[in-house]
Write a structure and sequence with these properties.
With 260 residues, this protein is α+β, with helices and mostly antiparallel strands. It folds into two domains: 81 residues, Arc Repressor Mutant, subunit A, CATH 1.10.10; 168 residues, Endonuclease Chain A (Endonuclease, Chain A), CATH 3.30.870.10. The protein is 48% helix and 17% strand. It contains twelve helices and ten strands. The strands form two sheets. It has an eight-stranded mixed β-sheet, sandwiched between helices. Strands 1-2 form a two-stranded antiparallel sheet. α9 links the parallel β4 and β5. The radius of gyration is 24 Å and the shape is elongated. The termini are far apart.
Protein backbone atom coordinates (compact mmCIF):
# COMPACT_ATOMS: atom_id res chain seq x y z
CA UNK A 1 0.00 0.00 0.00
CA UNK A 2 1.38 3.41 -0.92
CA UNK A 3 2.22 5.75 1.92
CA UNK A 4 -0.32 8.34 0.75
CA UNK A 5 -3.03 5.90 1.85
CA UNK A 6 -1.82 5.66 5.45
CA UNK A 7 -3.97 8.52 6.71
CA UNK A 8 -7.18 7.01 5.37
CA UNK A 9 -6.05 3.57 6.54
CA UNK A 10 -5.91 4.78 10.14
CA UNK A 11 -8.69 7.36 10.24
CA UNK A 12 -11.35 5.34 8.39
CA UNK A 13 -11.12 2.31 10.68
CA UNK A 14 -11.38 2.46 14.45
CA UNK A 15 -10.08 -1.10 14.74
CA UNK A 16 -6.95 -0.36 12.69
CA UNK A 17 -6.32 2.78 14.71
CA UNK A 18 -6.80 1.05 18.06
CA UNK A 19 -4.65 -1.89 16.97
CA UNK A 20 -1.82 0.46 16.03
CA UNK A 21 -1.97 2.19 19.42
CA UNK A 22 -2.31 -1.12 21.28
CA UNK A 23 0.88 -2.46 19.67
CA UNK A 24 2.65 0.79 20.52
CA UNK A 25 2.45 -0.31 24.17
CA UNK A 26 4.03 -3.73 23.50
CA UNK A 27 4.05 -6.60 20.96
CA UNK A 28 1.12 -8.97 21.27
CA UNK A 29 0.01 -12.44 20.28
CA UNK A 30 -3.09 -12.97 18.16
CA UNK A 31 -4.94 -14.40 21.15
CA UNK A 32 -4.22 -11.27 23.21
CA UNK A 33 -5.33 -9.05 20.34
CA UNK A 34 -8.59 -11.01 20.08
CA UNK A 35 -9.10 -10.69 23.84
CA UNK A 36 -8.28 -6.98 23.87
CA UNK A 37 -10.78 -6.10 21.15
CA UNK A 38 -13.29 -8.87 21.90
CA UNK A 39 -13.24 -10.19 18.33
CA UNK A 40 -12.74 -13.52 16.58
CA UNK A 41 -9.76 -14.31 14.36
CA UNK A 42 -11.82 -13.97 11.14
CA UNK A 43 -12.98 -10.51 12.28
CA UNK A 44 -9.52 -9.10 13.07
CA UNK A 45 -7.49 -10.92 10.41
CA UNK A 46 -8.40 -8.51 7.53
CA UNK A 47 -7.32 -5.52 9.64
CA UNK A 48 -4.01 -7.21 10.46
CA UNK A 49 -3.37 -8.03 6.79
CA UNK A 50 -4.11 -4.42 5.80
CA UNK A 51 -1.64 -3.08 8.33
CA UNK A 52 1.00 -5.63 7.35
CA UNK A 53 0.52 -4.62 3.72
CA UNK A 54 1.02 -0.98 4.71
CA UNK A 55 4.30 -1.92 6.48
CA UNK A 56 2.95 -0.81 9.85
CA UNK A 57 3.24 -4.17 11.63
CA UNK A 58 4.59 -7.66 11.17
CA UNK A 59 4.53 -11.06 12.85
CA UNK A 60 7.87 -11.91 14.39
CA UNK A 61 8.84 -15.35 13.00
CA UNK A 62 10.52 -16.38 16.26
CA UNK A 63 8.22 -15.05 18.99
CA UNK A 64 5.03 -15.24 16.87
CA UNK A 65 4.15 -11.85 18.31
CA UNK A 66 2.68 -9.02 16.25
CA UNK A 67 4.99 -6.00 16.43
CA UNK A 68 5.09 -2.51 14.95
CA UNK A 69 7.64 -1.85 12.26
CA UNK A 70 9.91 1.17 12.63
CA UNK A 71 7.54 3.08 10.36
CA UNK A 72 4.55 1.90 12.37
CA UNK A 73 6.13 3.02 15.64
CA UNK A 74 7.02 6.47 14.24
CA UNK A 75 3.45 6.95 13.00
CA UNK A 76 1.85 5.59 16.18
CA UNK A 77 3.87 7.88 18.47
CA UNK A 78 2.84 10.90 16.38
CA UNK A 79 -0.75 9.75 15.96
CA UNK A 80 -1.46 9.02 19.64
CA UNK A 81 -1.54 12.69 20.83
CA UNK A 82 -4.05 13.48 18.07
CA UNK A 83 -6.29 10.58 19.10
CA UNK A 84 -6.00 11.56 22.77
CA UNK A 85 -6.86 15.19 21.95
CA UNK A 86 -9.95 14.22 19.96
CA UNK A 87 -11.02 11.82 22.70
CA UNK A 88 -10.72 14.56 25.32
CA UNK A 89 -12.80 17.02 23.33
CA UNK A 90 -15.44 14.39 22.53
CA UNK A 91 -15.90 13.68 26.25
CA UNK A 92 -17.58 17.08 26.63
CA UNK A 93 -17.66 19.14 23.43
CA UNK A 94 -19.85 21.81 25.04
CA UNK A 95 -17.18 22.47 27.65
CA UNK A 96 -14.58 23.35 25.00
CA UNK A 97 -16.99 25.11 22.63
CA UNK A 98 -18.90 27.26 25.12
CA UNK A 99 -16.09 28.42 27.40
CA UNK A 100 -13.41 31.07 27.10
CA UNK A 101 -10.06 29.29 26.66
CA UNK A 102 -7.98 32.47 26.50
CA UNK A 103 -6.77 31.93 30.06
CA UNK A 104 -4.87 28.82 28.98
CA UNK A 105 -1.49 29.69 27.40
CA UNK A 106 -0.74 28.33 23.94
CA UNK A 107 2.02 25.97 25.09
CA UNK A 108 -0.50 24.23 27.37
CA UNK A 109 -3.30 24.25 24.80
CA UNK A 110 -0.85 22.31 22.64
CA UNK A 111 -0.65 19.75 25.46
CA UNK A 112 -4.38 19.37 26.14
CA UNK A 113 -4.01 15.69 25.33
CA UNK A 114 -2.30 15.36 28.73
CA UNK A 115 -5.80 15.77 30.21
CA UNK A 116 -7.20 12.78 28.31
CA UNK A 117 -7.94 10.83 31.50
CA UNK A 118 -9.88 13.67 33.11
CA UNK A 119 -13.49 13.48 34.20
CA UNK A 120 -16.13 16.20 34.02
CA UNK A 121 -18.32 17.00 37.01
CA UNK A 122 -21.47 18.78 35.86
CA UNK A 123 -23.93 19.84 38.56
CA UNK A 124 -27.66 20.05 37.97
CA UNK A 125 -29.16 23.42 38.89
CA UNK A 126 -30.76 21.98 42.02
CA UNK A 127 -27.34 20.66 43.16
CA UNK A 128 -25.13 23.50 42.01
CA UNK A 129 -22.60 23.10 44.83
CA UNK A 130 -22.02 19.34 44.50
CA UNK A 131 -18.82 19.79 42.47
CA UNK A 132 -17.48 22.14 45.14
CA UNK A 133 -18.09 19.47 47.79
CA UNK A 134 -16.11 17.05 45.62
CA UNK A 135 -13.46 19.75 45.34
CA UNK A 136 -13.16 20.30 49.11
CA UNK A 137 -13.23 16.55 49.81
CA UNK A 138 -10.27 16.02 47.46
CA UNK A 139 -8.34 18.91 48.97
CA UNK A 140 -8.84 17.45 52.43
CA UNK A 141 -6.78 14.43 51.30
CA UNK A 142 -3.99 16.56 49.77
CA UNK A 143 -0.65 17.43 51.35
CA UNK A 144 0.41 20.27 48.99
CA UNK A 145 -2.05 22.80 47.53
CA UNK A 146 -1.69 25.44 44.81
CA UNK A 147 -4.49 27.48 43.27
CA UNK A 148 -5.61 30.46 41.24
CA UNK A 149 -8.94 32.10 42.09
CA UNK A 150 -10.63 34.92 40.17
CA UNK A 151 -13.93 34.13 41.90
CA UNK A 152 -15.11 34.22 45.51
CA UNK A 153 -16.86 31.43 47.38
CA UNK A 154 -18.10 32.31 50.90
CA UNK A 155 -16.90 29.04 52.41
CA UNK A 156 -13.33 29.24 51.09
CA UNK A 157 -11.74 31.84 53.44
CA UNK A 158 -12.48 29.72 56.51
CA UNK A 159 -11.66 26.49 54.67
CA UNK A 160 -8.19 27.63 53.59
CA UNK A 161 -7.50 29.31 56.93
CA UNK A 162 -8.13 25.97 58.62
CA UNK A 163 -5.74 24.23 56.23
CA UNK A 164 -3.12 26.88 56.99
CA UNK A 165 -3.51 26.30 60.74
CA UNK A 166 -2.88 22.60 60.10
CA UNK A 167 0.44 23.51 58.40
CA UNK A 168 -0.64 22.25 54.98
CA UNK A 169 1.72 23.88 52.43
CA UNK A 170 -0.57 26.16 50.41
CA UNK A 171 0.14 28.71 47.66
CA UNK A 172 -2.77 30.84 46.46
CA UNK A 173 -2.93 33.39 43.67
CA UNK A 174 -5.92 35.73 44.00
CA UNK A 175 -7.12 38.43 41.66
CA UNK A 176 -7.24 41.90 43.19
CA UNK A 177 -11.04 41.92 43.43
CA UNK A 178 -11.10 38.60 45.30
CA UNK A 179 -8.24 39.68 47.56
CA UNK A 180 -10.03 42.93 48.46
CA UNK A 181 -13.29 41.08 49.22
CA UNK A 182 -11.60 38.50 51.45
CA UNK A 183 -9.60 41.21 53.25
CA UNK A 184 -12.67 43.38 53.85
CA UNK A 185 -15.13 40.64 54.79
CA UNK A 186 -12.92 37.87 56.24
CA UNK A 187 -10.01 39.76 57.76
CA UNK A 188 -9.47 37.28 60.61
CA UNK A 189 -9.21 34.34 58.20
CA UNK A 190 -6.90 36.30 55.92
CA UNK A 191 -4.60 37.16 58.84
CA UNK A 192 -4.58 33.53 60.00
CA UNK A 193 -3.69 32.33 56.52
CA UNK A 194 -0.88 34.87 56.01
CA UNK A 195 0.59 34.24 59.47
CA UNK A 196 0.81 30.48 58.96
CA UNK A 197 4.23 28.87 58.49
CA UNK A 198 3.68 27.11 55.18
CA UNK A 199 1.49 29.50 53.20
CA UNK A 200 2.16 31.87 50.33
CA UNK A 201 -0.17 34.48 48.86
CA UNK A 202 0.14 36.20 45.50
CA UNK A 203 -1.81 38.90 43.70
CA UNK A 204 -2.80 38.88 40.04
CA UNK A 205 -4.59 41.57 38.03
CA UNK A 206 -7.03 39.17 36.38
CA UNK A 207 -7.54 35.56 35.34
CA UNK A 208 -9.92 33.72 33.02
CA UNK A 209 -9.37 30.37 34.76
CA UNK A 210 -10.03 29.08 38.26
CA UNK A 211 -8.15 25.99 39.36
CA UNK A 212 -6.46 24.06 42.14
CA UNK A 213 -3.65 21.55 41.74
CA UNK A 214 -2.40 19.33 44.55
CA UNK A 215 -0.39 16.14 44.91
CA UNK A 216 -3.71 14.25 44.58
CA UNK A 217 -5.74 15.97 41.86
CA UNK A 218 -6.16 18.90 39.47
CA UNK A 219 -9.47 20.77 39.16
CA UNK A 220 -10.22 23.39 36.50
CA UNK A 221 -13.26 25.58 35.87
CA UNK A 222 -13.71 28.27 33.24
CA UNK A 223 -15.73 31.32 32.27
CA UNK A 224 -18.32 31.23 29.50
CA UNK A 225 -17.56 33.20 26.37
CA UNK A 226 -20.17 35.68 27.61
CA UNK A 227 -17.82 36.54 30.48
CA UNK A 228 -19.86 34.84 33.21
CA UNK A 229 -18.22 32.26 35.44
CA UNK A 230 -19.50 28.69 35.13
CA UNK A 231 -19.98 27.32 38.68
CA UNK A 232 -21.51 24.05 37.50
CA UNK A 233 -18.76 22.35 35.48
CA UNK A 234 -15.36 21.17 36.71
CA UNK A 235 -12.70 19.26 34.81
CA UNK A 236 -10.87 17.00 37.27
CA UNK A 237 -7.75 14.87 36.79
CA UNK A 238 -6.23 12.36 39.20
CA UNK A 239 -3.47 10.98 36.96
CA UNK A 240 0.19 12.06 36.87
CA UNK A 241 0.07 13.77 33.47
CA UNK A 242 -3.03 15.76 34.32
CA UNK A 243 -1.58 16.90 37.64
CA UNK A 244 1.67 17.92 35.95
CA UNK A 245 -0.33 19.94 33.39
CA UNK A 246 -2.01 21.70 36.31
CA UNK A 247 1.34 22.41 37.96
CA UNK A 248 2.64 23.90 34.72
CA UNK A 249 -0.46 26.11 34.49
CA UNK A 250 0.16 27.28 38.05
CA UNK A 251 3.80 28.11 37.23
CA UNK A 252 2.60 30.16 34.25
CA UNK A 253 0.37 32.30 36.49
CA UNK A 254 2.95 32.43 39.27
CA UNK A 255 5.40 34.06 36.84
CA UNK A 256 2.90 36.91 36.38
CA UNK A 257 1.84 37.30 40.01
CA UNK A 258 3.20 39.51 42.78
CA UNK A 259 3.91 38.02 46.19
CA UNK A 260 2.15 39.63 49.15
Amino acid sequence: MKSKGLLSLLTFSEKRRDLLLFLLEHPSSLSNIRKKFDVSSPEIAPRIREMESANLMYKDPFTKMYTLTTTGRIIAKSFKPFVDMVGLIEKNEDFWNDHDLSGIPYHLLDRLADLKDCVFYVDRFENIYDSHKTFTDNIAHSSVIKGVSPIFFPSYPDFFAQLALKDVPTSLILTKSVFDKVTNEHDENMRAYCAAKYTELYLLDSSKVAFVVTDVFFSLSLFFKSGNYDPRTDLICFDEKGIQWGNDLFEYYLSQAKKI
